[in-house]
Design goal:
Layout: E1 3-13, E2 16-25, E3 30-35, H1 41-55, H2 63-72, H3 80-101, H4 105-108, E4 116-122, H5 128-139, E5 144-147, E6 175-177, H6 180-198, E7 203-207, H7 214-222, E8 231-233, H8 241-250, E9 255-257, H9 264-272, E10 278-279, H10 288-301, E11 305-306, H11 314-325, E12 333-334, E13 337-338, E14 341-342, E15 357-358, E16 361-363, H12 376-380, E17 391-393
Parallel strand pairs: 4-5, 4-12, 5-7, 6-17, 7-8, 8-9, 9-10, 10-11
Antiparallel strand pairs: 1-2, 2-3, 4-16, 13-14, 15-16
Helix pairs in contact: 1-3, 2-3, 5-6, 6-7, 7-8
Length: 402
């Protein structure tokens, strides 16, 4: 069997773009993959086209060797754009191998440890609506719930608001105001109230989306009674492990870190030096299933569970479910679909065959490959819609983290 084509499809799904990648072979077997570098789909599509020229005519079953060639076959190894492209291709190659052998992808990864993969839900609500949302999720059987920080300028509505008139320089529609320090007190107070009203018999976390610095993150964590939070996700940026070590010395809330990491080497200091408690691995960013399984084994050796990043669509979800089935050290899978959140990422017009969320979990599929099909004729007719992430600014006009 030989690879005959590799086709990137940047396509709008729900409220954002997804970059789907199809790998075709001369035996008519094909596979689907997905890139995780959201809002930079055109850059990744260019890298995929580059790799296409290298991989045409190659044996798709040689996934590990092809991974090494894609990663190491140039002087400038790695980087998020290249590994996002490698991830999508690698996932598609696993889909092909599973179909060719007539087995689910988890069998290629060592077989399954579990029959279903538990998930966590998210709510972006604030104020009384946050209490209502958490109560609703609990009533539907969700036991792990993630929240987001308050923006005091816009309680209880959406997280951020445009404030064009407050800056000397002009703002575009994508420019939004967020003052990190001002979010700390209201957010901590909300989480304390959730615990006071709804108890402690569920897991409660927050994703601060690296919007704080070390001092701000410490101040936030110290404003809550012990036991309020079970995890804080990405409180600060992750380029400097020493910054997380400094924060670790000041707070005792478990960290969930790693969704932006693009290789096992990026994970190395966080696992080796004990500065993450949940590995937020993203199979569509880290280098696909080939690299993800290496990180998973490393995490297991340090008694760290996976808590995968999965804000994308059915292809990434399916690949992550297969990985989650095949590792012993697993906690919960992110899914952006619940009674409190529906972003349209699982559009059945585009994905007529996909894994089904049953309550708060995905059953592990037993069919060959990933278990996902894409309506290729439909996405061929769609035009690319340019989209970029929000550009957050403080009121003084300076850029802050999204």
């Amino acid at each position: 069997m030989k690879i005959t084509d590799i086709i990137p499809y940047p396509v709008w799904v729900g409220s954002r773009n997804q970059l789907l990648v199809k790998v075709e072979t001369d035996e008519g077997i094909y596979g689907w993959g997905e890139s995780g570098l959201s809002s930079r789909e055109l850059a990744v599509a260019g890298a995929v086209r580059h790799y296409r020229e290298i991989l045409l005519g190659r044996d798709p079953m040689q996934r590990g060797a092809l991974w090494q060639e894609m990663y190491r076959g140039q002087y400038f190894e790695g980087g998020r754009v290249l590994t996002a492209a490698i991830s999508a291709i690698d996932i598609a190659l696993h889909d092909i191998a599973g179909k060719a052998l007539g087995v689910p992808v988890y069998q290629l990864l060592g077989g399954k440890h579990r029959d279903y993969v538990p998930c966590f839900a998210s709510t972006g609500s604030h104020g009384e609506k946050l209490i209502e949302d958490v109560r609703l999720l609990l009533s539907h059987g969700w036991t792990v719930i993630r929240t987001f920080p308050v923006n005091p300028k816009n309680i209880p509505g959406s997280p951020m608001v445009v404030q064009r008139t407050q800056l000397a320089r002009g703002l575009q529609e994508e420019d939004l105001i967020f003052e990190p320090r001002e979010s700390i007190g209201p957010t901590a107070a909300e989480l304390v109230k959730v615990r006071e009203e709804l108890g402690t018999d569920f897991v409660l976390g927050i994703d601060y989306h690296h919007r704080l610095n070390v001092a701000e993150a410490a101040s936030f964590c110290q404003r809550m009674p012990a036991g309020t939070l079970d995890f804080i996700e990405e409180p600060i940026r992750a380029e400097t492990p020493e910054a997380y070590e400094a924060l670790r010395r000041m707070v005792d809330i478990p960290f969930a870190i790693g969704e932006e990491f693009s290789s096992k080497w990026a994970f190395l200091p966080y696992l080796e030096r004990g500065i993450t408690d949940f590995a937020r691995i993203d199979v569509s960013n880290v280098g696909g299933l080939t690299e993800a399984m290496k990180v998973a084994g490393w995490a297991e050796a340090h008694y760290i569970d996976l808590m995968p990043h999965n804000p994308l669509g059915p292809v990434c979800t399916a690949a992550t479910v297969h990985m989650a089935a095949a590792v012993p050290n697993f906690s919960w899978l992110e899914v952006r679909r619940s009674p409190t959140e529906e972003l349209g990422f699982y559009d059945e017009t585009i994905f007529p065959v996909q894994l089904t969320l049953e309550g708060n979990r995905f059953l592990v599929p037993d069919g060959p490959g990933l278990g996902v099909e894409v309506n290729e004729e439909y996405i061929k007719r769609q035009e690319f819609k340019f989209s970029s992430g929000p550009r957050l600014r403080k009121r003084d006009g300076s850029i802050t983290n999204w």
